[in-house]
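User: I'm putting together a teaching handout on how multi-component assemblies are represented. Below are the sequence lines for each component of a complex, exactly as they appear in our records. Could you produce the 3D structure of the whole assembly as structure tokens, so the students can see both representations side by side? Please keep the chain order the same as the input.
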Amino acid sequence: MLNAEIIAIGSEMLTPFRVDTNSLWLTERLNSLGIDVKLKTVVGDDESRLEEAIRDALRRSEIIISTGGLGPTEDDITRKIFARVLKRHLVLNDEILERLRTRFARRNMPMPEINSRQALVMEGAEILANRNGTAPGMMIQEGKCTVVMLPGPPREMRPMFDEAIAPVLKQRVGDLVILRRKFSIFGLTESRTDELAAPVYLKFKNPVTTILFKDGQIELHLTAQARKSADAEKLLDELGGQLDEVLGEYIFSRRDETLEEVVGDLLRARGYTISTAESCTGGLVAGKITEVSGSSDYFLEGVVSYSNESKIRILGVPEAMIIEHGAVSEPVAKAMAEGVRKLANSTYGIGITGIAGPGGGTEEKPVGLVYIALADDTQTTVRKLIFPGDRQFIRTLAVNSALDLVRRRIS
Amino acid sequence: MLNAEIIAIGSEMLTPFRVDTNSLWLTERLNSLGIDVKLKTVVGDDESRLEEAIRDALRRSEIIISTGGLGPTEDDITRKIFARVLKRHLVLNDEILERLRTRFARRNMPMPEINSRQALVMEGAEILANRNGTAPGMMIQEGKCTVVMLPGPPREMRPMFDEAIAPVLKQRVGDLVILRRKFSIFGLTESRTDELAAPVYLKFKNPVTTILFKDGQIELHLTAQARKSADAEKLLDELGGQLDEVLGEYIFSRRDETLEEVVGDLLRARGYTISTAESCTGGLVAGKITEVSGSSDYFLEGVVSYSNESKIRILGVPEAMIIEHGAVSEPVAKAMAEGVRKLANSTYGIGITGIAGPGGGTEEKPVGLVYIALADDTQTTVRKLIFPGDRQFIRTLAVNSALDLVRRRIS
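Assistant: Of course. Below is the structure of the complete assembly, with chains in the same order as your input.
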């Protein structure tokens, strides 16, 4: 198995505030190509330590990937130090310079002179275009070692790796096929998921299963390897089938889709539309649904009725109902869902009201209490839920629950 | 300033799913003692790489802190490799062995034989008791370097550091006061910020300034050290004052507040209210405003008018205007802001319409084009902006811009 080493560069990565998420993402990608990550280094804008890290890496690793330090400022030292260690000159690339100027011109801004530093490239290196930013990446072969320099911002680094680096590394690895499958789950705790799934996945040495807990959702990553693609698929099918049996309805995707994509596909396939009336989630359900490009096909409108006044006036919730039951109550959630459905003339209407905290809780209605209603032309169902955690986590779980309710209703 | 290096040990730290949060926590603690973290290494259960990492660290750093690899199993190699590099014997400590046996006995379990390995300690090392687990830590002085081995689980590592290590390091540092200040900026690119700020902050060796780019916002972290708190404050005031002169209006907080908190405080202080009408941001402006607990004091309602139909019906945007200018246009943004303000009867109304992409762009109206309008009872201003990046980044910048527009109007 080929081994790789990741070097994250930049003093901000040595503050208490910044997690090196790039290296996690890269590790996932490298593993999926059948490459092992053996070491990670985080180094600041410190020339001698970076130089040492690169020298050590060159001696012991077959692949070196650095992230960051390709910006335009003085303390972006990646280019300079790699060139020094690899004993290569940096030359100004006119084509990149021109592209940089055009990029700034498009936004009606003059290019700051320091940005021209980003057009410096190493002799003999392959230049990697940056679709989402100014700093180009570089790749160079040094003896047996493939050296890659990527920019730090994830939205620049990721497409560059996928488009330019992954194909090259895949060729180096040869014909071992690594296939992965991702099962996405909502509605179970992490420990309950493991209790159900472990007796199944522990029977398999190949595929390997990893569990990830993220924003209230759970992901099972299955990785199979084989000489032939069909064999790896078969291994995944077998484990996948057994996991389906124990986790069934909680699995919302078996192929790396987000919950909002799954819901969007279900709505579009049937020609259904949806609208939202939100209180405690403050627009985040609408925001999540519209994260999917093309969501205007099925998302019509949303109302964030934060005040009682707006629940009454826009959504037609009866004032007497709010007085009798309170704004956070089952009948109000129901009336919100039905109100917005009528207003938007959509197939479905979602209504959410709850107490996200930290203030506003009572014995009877504690922080974390959320009512979620889903209305269509024949029925309105309401779920009463009590979520744990802080304001942000409660809102996140409420958004997920609302989407999952739609998924279950349609499918 | 003393410098430290952190080594995280354990193969699980090299999977895609595990963030090295220990090093963030340690960095915060070390910084607050006035100690700089210059390098972090993550290494697996790999003897030769760990040995190399320790040797490099001993040569260049004044403090080495390792976490993990002190468990009872074969692949817990920290003890062995540190002993090898430091040329010290490991000896069985009867007292620790006894404590381990008692610990297991209390839980009515026999101690697995492999656990006795945890009673092996380095000659000459200070033993650090573990209140919450079985593995003791160790601290040893090697020449000018303080070497510390801590267990990996945070609830074992943290009290051990605070109780046994922090007092020792504090003594090494002397009685230095470290104060921090955070300036938060929106509306400038990273390179433009640095162009303006670098001539100022580079004049100062103390405070030290770090620049961080995050979700379209920029943070300047200022860290000052002095013998007395008042002196550190004075240093921060001086640098802060000079940064104010060059960055002025772009600074939205000088004390670690979010943009939505700043806007919320401004609204509340004046008894103003606000409402939102969003198209391309799909509810995220409302979602951001309501992230602040207590935002119901000033946020009244939001409309996510994704369809033209809803812009016309709820917000009263004239159909003829949409036909003439298109849904993404200056007059429509203006009409949305004025419409929602009237609907909600709020002090301010925000209107946003744009093209978040990836589809839907034209030559005349490219992806990234966003109109943001802000209406009050005397005027409505509209800004035309062209944002770079993908769908998510365009939406994030649009949300920030809308909030910043409100901040600038009020302050």
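A couple of points students might notice: The longest strand of chain B covers residues 217-226. The longest helix of chain B spans residues 154-173.
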